[in-house]
Write a structure and sequence with these properties.
single chain, about 700 residues, alpha/beta, Leucine-rich repeat, LRR (right-handed beta-alpha superhelix), 13-stranded parallel β-sheet, five-stranded antiparallel β-sheet, 12 helices, 36 strands, about 20% helix, membrane, ATP-binding, transmembrane helix, transmembrane
Amino acid sequence: MLNMRHFTVLNSSLTGQLPREISRWTNLGVLSLANNSLSGTLPKHIAMPRLQLLDLGYNNFNGPLSSYWAAASSIARIDLTSNAFTGTLPPQWSTFPQLIGLALGHNKLERELPQEWSALTRLYLLQLNDNSLTGKLPEEWHRMQGLNYLDLDNNYLTGRLPVAWSELRQIKKLSVAGNLLTGSLAPEISGMSALTTLNMSSNYLNGDVFVPGMFALQTLGLASNEFTGSLPSAWSAMTNLTRLDVSYNGFTSQLPIEWSALEQLQYLDLRGNAGLSGRVPPSWSAMSGLTWLGLPSDEFCGGVSSEMMEAATASGSCAPPSSSTAWRVPLWLIILVAVVATLLLVTAAITVRVFIHRATCSDPLCAHRHPGFLHSLDGHLFRGVRSSKCKWCMWDGQPDLQVPFAELSPLIEEEALIGYGGFSRVYKGRWRGRVVAVKVLNSCGKEAEIGGWLAAFQHEVDMCLRCNDCDRMVRLYGACYEPNKLCLINEYLEGGSLHERIHGKGQPAVSVMETLQIAKDIATGLMFMHPEVVHRDIKPDNILLEKGGRAKIIDLGLGRVDDNPLMTHINTDVSGTASYMSPEQCEGRVSTKTDIYALGVLMNECLAGKIPFEEYRTALAVQYAVTVHAKRPNMLSDCPVGIRNLITRCWEQDQNKRPGIREVIFMIDFLIEAEINGGAAAEPKKRPATDLMQGESRAFSAPPEIATANL
């Protein structure tokens, strides 16, 4: 065995660990065991001076990559793709003088990219995608003059593309999608004249998108960034372009007529750019090879020529045209007739049922007995929805909004008081077979104020009804509308408030895992509310805990409804709790990002165990510190870097830089998984990279000399 030169066993379901003795096969030149089920760690030392190919991809190996492998001075190709390797990238691997191919994608590697690897001047292919790498892109890598293929997709890399990388004049494919990169494209890549594929989707890039001299480019992916302005008409010079994806940015103006010169274009995605206007230029019919066309909206379909309609139909942007000119019953007419007939049948059934119900129901307060379903309380109108005595009203288990106060008065006793505030008191009791919390609004006093109090009360009921189906919101069971006896009947949670959990006497510190789970529950509730409803007062006092520690949101009294989900801001009064109010909320503007800010403050309070801004004496002082000086609550010095970065992103001064609620949940899930696996991630994951090439592999095609070695 010591004289073996080639050892290759592929796709054979091998199991177990790699024998340690294999590291002493000094004559071995090729070791290829890809696509098996091998596991365990690899030898720390590999004394194989003749080894040229090491291919262990698509197995279950784990542990760190050894820096001592650099002693294998003849190695030219290493493929460890799709394993479970951890730790850092060894800087010592920079001493591989013959290395031309290195594939480490789909592992669990972390920390920074080693700047020492700039010494790998012969390196042709480098794949580090789908790991947990952090930090900035090393400027020194511009010395890798032999690099042709570089894949850094789906990591946590930050900063800008180094300007010095423009010296990589041989590079053909560069993919850094799904990271946290910022800045612009030019002049960072202006010198990469040999590029055929550039994918920078799903980052935070902005600025100028036109880069001169990219005439060899065939694939360009810039989706899901923050680019604005006009689409460059000068891209018409990139006549070799076959795939172009600029979807989900902020581009404006009209579609460039000059793009008709892109006759090789097969795939074009413009979706998610609401600022684009006008029509599809008729000259675009010259794009005879176009098979997939994603348009910003269906308003553009009217200008699509017959030659391009098939491409627009393939993307779902436009409805397919009729396939026959002969008269036939249109599909829309068939659907319309079916819908109308169904509505008529349902209406007739309901009418008969209501007629019978009105004739037989004995409850004089039943809402269904009154036209318009409107009731009057001392001259003030409100909408009645359910009656406690009417079985037909209660059949679907919806909240009873006509509970008589006499039914609740036995519960409202001093010894049952569990909480109070400036406007209400809360009592615990048993109502209709379940333990509930009864919130009783304080008496409004003057007769003239009844209408205002009733309107505020109705607003809170409406907010609760909107969110009553979410299991992360405290459920509303009923309400009493009697004047000066306004009551809400809510679900009772045994765990108390999050404020009591954090600051209660004798309570243990809130762990990182508990913080993440609480934040996940709150974010789940907010995702149900957003974008139509903004809570505006997320804080520990408004978070209740179940017996097992799961969290639910309460108190929608300050919630606001946005009837247009496309609106970003809601003009409002300055309401909320100062310590948790975002800068824009302090100025009287709120949006869904206001709740994201408060969630960040709440997570930090869980970990730090201190009330935010307790050093300030007045709410006005807090608002001044937050808006003018961009102050934030103090963070623990040993706060895990992953959750620290998540909190920091949530309370960004500029609300446009805060993540959306879905991205927050995605990052929390990632941190929870990392915590379960025994260590926090370096930084929460951003949204997954947009898949630019539909039907095309995400991995790069290897050059001929590397493909022969199964890299």
